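Entry 0007
Protein: Methionine/alanine import family NSS transporter small subunit
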Amino acid sequence: MTTTAIVFMIIAMVTVWGGLVAGIVNLARHPEQADDEPPVPVEL
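Output (structure tokens):
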């Protein structure tokens, strides 16, 4: 493989895996809640 191909492969991998990590972090911070579940009580 040429250097250009390797650079573009790394860019593509960082884009895909970075999007996956960002999605997991976002879902961990703001979990989806089913419509039939009662809201979670907030403790202060």
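Curator remark: The CA atoms of residues 18 and 32 lie 21 Å apart. The chain is about 60% helix and 0% strand.
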